[in-house]
Amino acid sequence: MENQTKFRRSQEIKKCHHHKNIGFRNLCYSVQENKVSARQEQPKVILRGVNGEFRSGRLTAILGPSGAGKSSLLNVLSGFKSSGVTGYITVNGVERNTEEFRRESCYITQNCYLMDLLTTRETLAVAASFKLNAKVTTREKNDMINDILELLGLRKAAETRVGKLSGGEKKRLSIGQELLTNPPVMFFDEPTSGLDSSSSLQVISHLKSLVRGGRTIVCSIHQPSSRLFEMFDDLYVLAEGQCLYSGAISDMTAVFQESGFKCPKYYNRADFAVEVACRERGMNIEKLIAKAETHFHGPDTGRADYITNEETSMLRPSIKKNSTDTYIQVPQETMGSRYPVTLARQISVLLKRAVLCTIRDLHLAQLRLVSHVVIGLFLGGVFYGIGDEASKVASNTAFLMFSMMFLFFCNLFPFVHSFPLEKLVVMREHMNNWYSLEAYHISKIVAELPLQILCPTGFLVSAYFLTGQPTEATRFFQFWAVFIMVAAIAQSLGLATGAAVEPQLGVFVVSTIALPMLIFSGFYLRLQDMQVFLQWLSYVAYFRYAFEALMQSVYGYDRPYLKCSEAYCHFKSPRKYLEEFDMEDANYWTDMLGLLVWIAALQIVFHLMLKFKMRVSR
Ligand SMILES: Nc1ncnc2c1ncn2[C@@H]1O[C@H](COP(=O)(O)OP(=O)(O)OP(=O)(O)O)[C@@H](O)[C@H]1O
């Protein structure tokens, strides 16, 4: 009985109740390359008016030499690229509605960007939480995950962490994530790249079994073996951004032969098609191109046989009425929204995942905390008991400055280094409509909060009392609040930089931004000693606000005279010492407000940068 239910469910996953035929006419795609010389003003044309049709229940291969435009065609058809695109894309003969289509399709890119610290099962569970209706029970979700593990041959690797999976397993896992919503259309960019022949065959045979359920599956493919090639039903050959052949694989040899390209006996037909596309078998491929064009337009190339969106609004009710969707169930509360689950649910799932990743990588979190405590103890030893000594105010100021710099750089570089990788996962998941960037941003701040507070606190507790800083609770908490703010600025700058550039460049960028700011902190150069036209820079330097706030918490608020253990101490009066830095009238709360504005500004930059990256990648 149990086995029967399993079999029925696995058949159900394979089955697809929406049949979608994708058509495209006169599709052009061009990009504006980075302008390096005056001559490069013309956009680079990648797809030159291609036509084609990808049918449901058929596994289609896109073949062509490197640079022919295979990935570009997939990017455009899946809706991942939209700028620089002209032409018509239709779904079942109706003009494509990109947003709707993105909900009904998935695109699995060449690189599988997954969270290495989660197991295979957890990865599917997270995807299920984002993609499935909240009404689907945990038991149903688990059953579905088990079925997908079974279907994709991942049962044995279910409890293995993604970072330890083989390339083929990762690829199948990416497919599994998208299968949870049973999308009728699936695009794959080189699903077999980097796989050995047996894993490639496994992946393609899984796709073949999915296609039999009625899906439309399109894969770009690179140098397939004869055996692999024969598993496809249809073929689409691209050469220099133009279509050379579109149709059944079984008809390919005959069509090529009609145009004068005879495939030798026992020759790999995929290799032959690529050789023709590369003009290795003769220069005159225009005949093939023209034939492919007439196939779609007919002799009188007019307006393509599609219906516009306005025209279909009347058709839609009947389409919807006839559909019986297995897993795609848009809950009432998210109806009309781009995402299957509510914002609150997106945040909660993202938070759970972040906590799980932190727990898995606990030694990294521990290391971060321990390094703060150890450096705190080290500084406590080096600057031992100098905090209330009038003859050592200069050394105490050096301690304040060093602590600030340590906290800043120690909380900056981890984000500059790690975020670019995380960004790739976020981009893939966001582009596949799992969650909004707002949900991600909120969850990121909340998930990082415990460490962002614990680390500076560990450092402060170790160093503050050893160095003999004032013991009043107010001063201690004011000091602590500045440290938390410095760590938050570092995190925000690290995230914004990580979102904008790669780590190698990021290290250079943050150093270039941060080091000049240090000059204007008021420690190295007194404010009154700065060139007048440069003084405004000290008002934008966050280090100035942080340093001034630290000085206020230690020496401000009419602190009584410091003890002097030498014959003469010039700075027995803390106020006199503050005057030396031009900080006697500074206000702690104004400085805190300055730091807060910086944090808010950097978080906004981080968010906009993420949005910008999503947009330019389209
Ligand atoms: N954003 C871009 N800017 C400039 N050129 C681009 C851009 N995107 C693609 N191209 C160019 O367009 C052409 C087609 O690229 P595409 O990635 O689609 O090729 P492909 O057939 O998938 O190649 P491969 O098999 O090597 O992956 C290439 O010459 C590529 O350099």
From TrEMBL:
Example of a GO cellular component annotation carried by this entry: plasma membrane
A Pfam family assignment: ABC2_membrane_7
Database matches in PROSITE patterns: ABC_TRANSPORTER_1, ABC_TRANSPORTER_2
Membrane topology: Multi-pass membrane protein
Keyword annotations: ATP-binding, Membrane, Nucleotide-binding, Transmembrane, Transmembrane helix, Transport
Main location: membrane
Protein name, per record: ABC transporter domain-containing protein
Species assigned in the record: Cryptotermes secundus
